[in-house]
Amino acid sequence: MSTFLYKLGRQAYGKPWYFIGGWIVILAVVAAMLGVNGMSTSTEIKLEGTDAQKVLDKLEKVLPEAAGGRGSVVFTAPEGERLDTPERVAAITDAVSKVYQLDYVINPADYAAAAGADSTGGAAVQGEASREAGPAGTAGAGTASAGTAGAGTASTGTAGAGTASTGTAGADPSQLPPYGPLMADGTAVPGVLIASDGSVALFQFQFTVLQTSLPEGVADSIVDVVNQAGEGTGITVLPSDTLQPVDIPIGSNEVYGLVIAILVLIVSLGSIVAAGLPILIALFGVAIGVGGAYAISSFITMTSITPVLALMVGLAVGIDYALFIVNRQRRLIIDQGLTAREAARRAVGTAGSAVFFAGLTVIIALCGLLVIGLSFLSVMALVASVTVFLDVLIALTLLPALLGLIGERICSRKARDKNRSQAKGKRHGIAERWVKGVVKFRWLIIVGVIAILGAAALPVADMKMGMPDGGSANLDTAQRQSYDAISRGFGEGYNGPLMIVAEPKDPSGAITQETLYGLVQDIQQVENVSVVSPLGVSGEGKTAILNVIPKTGPTDEATHSLVKALRDSDSTIAQTYGVTLGVTGFTAINIDMSAKLAEVFPIYIVIIVIVSLLILLLVFRSILVPIKATVGFLLSVLATFGLTTAVYQWEWLHSLFGFDTGGPILSFLPIMITGILYGLAMDYQVFLVSSMRESYVHGHRGNESVIHGYDQASRVVVAAAIIMVSVFAGFIFAHDIMIKQVGFALAIGILLDAFVVRMALVPAVMSLFGDKAWSLPRWLDRLLPNLDVEGDKLLAELKAKDAEAGSPSPRAMH
């Protein structure tokens, strides 16, 4: 491997413009594709194979009009005032009427007429059932839509259009809900509910297609229309985020991480020219990787977090990989007096080998997400993996080409003389003193690290998984204001309605009106159900749709229990009416996602650990070192999840990290962060421990190999870790709560793994086992190929060539 990479570095250094031109052409192609295709991201998260997704897929076939997306708008009055004044009612009525006239929006009057019902009360069967059920439902269906009334992020479909019908005839006044239809001239305004105190109104409507299929400009037209209701009336209009454009969640905060990275590079490399190379290489890699992802985003469904994840990982590893190679070249120039040309070749051959295997470990960890079988996670993994692959390829080809243009300027004469004078003394005094202390007090270090990380991991026991909703958004956002207004006026359950799809168990059976009435009445009596309203029955009576409003919010544990109870095939309701009940909606999707991820998480861990252990076995030719590396990682990742739970769920230091209210931890965060952190943690393992092995191979034994190897590699590993933490930490202050959580988990994970596990626990354990750490059974030693990561074969070959040329060191500087 090192010999091949040495030759590759020689070609790139000797003919730089061939390689530079090639990468510029690739970047130009990506830019051209991006210009032609544009950028398109989505909030859609499709959960293939889950119960909630199966319900939606079935609706698209049997009742396509019920599978369209949902939009909602909240109207609020100034404090102490009401919305149901003649002027404000007229403004809201006019806005609602105009929305129903727009393309791709279902007009409830047309929908009801098509169903054979009157245009004011919805389908006849719906109105009748609602009256018998007592407290009535809302206009429209349950939803699994991103930010429905400001409540979510997982966009899928919804059902039903309906009208605002209270259905309160003959009901016990004490049981009436604290809201009703908005009335205009004695007639209910279709689709609009108003709270009893008149302070807030909720307008819900149905699209003919999913939000992701809406043509560009439809949502903007709706927002423009509803905003007219607030002109001169004092009404505050809060469209749900399903109607807002999907922003790319990248802001100026990420630049701060890059600024810190540049400062660290200048300090570590001692040269602005040398410091600029890793930044340039990383930017080049993410420009092609992330730009390429956006360029094809019109053809694949890609969530808004996908390119951001690729940007996070791509920037961090791109800078680190280039730093390792440039640092190795400079050390070869300073320590061995090599020319910049020869030092660059050897750096690519030796440090480049470590970069290759470190990148391969990250890619394997990311691609392991494909076993989960969820398309949005698979796209995330593939985009991030391709970006890492590009970072590795660019570091091994474009970087030596740029080094060829810079030549001897990569290391000034002043820097050479300074470092040579320091080499006579103790060049890495701090690192050497630290590692000697770790070796001396190794048992104390081992016990202390385990105790600290174990304590940090304790909050994991209380971790609650889900998708952040409007209730966890910042107070100054429209999403949070909408969520709070709905909760205040109608109850928190309206932020996460459920859609129930009932089908007869007997294929020859049908759902009659009597069955539908009974289902509404009995579901209404289920614990934690606030409102039930039927939304329609398919022509042959094979499918009935009901809207269920829980009493609790979408992320509340009681709502999760309600979903499970409704899905129970052995429940009294299912047995009494001979039906199966399917449940979908925002909450149901969260439950299914968490269950799906929990099911495949052990399989995922086993796959990436086994494959990565094999790679580490090949690299280090040791059984103990890969096992130790994995155990150390498990400690750091558990501590990472513990601290993430404490901050984002328990709200520790929440003001410091720029959010107002805690909420659930992202359902896919543990499995995604585990994969990424494992790959990145093995990067530091490879670079640090390969230096210890190199010392061992070159004659150092016992603690001496640990101390010498640590002294050689610690400075660049610390610099790389600081850079990676800085890059990830820049995303903590993004406006999107998902990006915040991912950025924090990655930053704290690298901080713990690099500085606590790799810088303290690893040398302590390596010292504990001594030379036995490198022992390998002879039969296994014969089976394993020698990858020559340390470059022994390369150095032997170069020495032989020098001897043949009649000079002991023709490549050295004179």
Structure explained in plain terms:
By secondary structure, the protein is α+β, with helices and mostly antiparallel strands. The chain has 2 domains: 2-38 and 248-464 and 590-804, Multidrug efflux transporter AcrB transmembrane fold; 51-246 and 472-554, no CATH class. The protein is 58% helix and 8% strand. It is built from 26 helices and 11 strands. The protein has helices spanning 2-14, 16-37, 51-62, 86-100, 108-114, 124-133, 218-227, 253-269, 272-295, 305-336, 340-367, 375-406, 413-423, 429-440, 442-457, 478-490, 513-524, 557-567, 572-577, 586-620, 624-648, 669-697, 703-729, 737-769, 778-783, 792-804, and strands at 70-76, 179-184, 187-195, 200-206, 236-239, 465-466, 498-504, 529-537, 544-550, 579-585, 665-666. A 5-stranded antiparallel beta sheet has the order 2-3-4-1-5, with helices on both faces. A 4-stranded antiparallel beta sheet has the order 8-9-7-10, with helices on both faces. It has a two-stranded parallel sheet with strand order 6-11. Helix 8 packs parallel to helix 10. The chain is elongated, with a radius of gyration of 31 Å. The model is unreliable at 117-174 and 810-814 (pLDDT under 50).
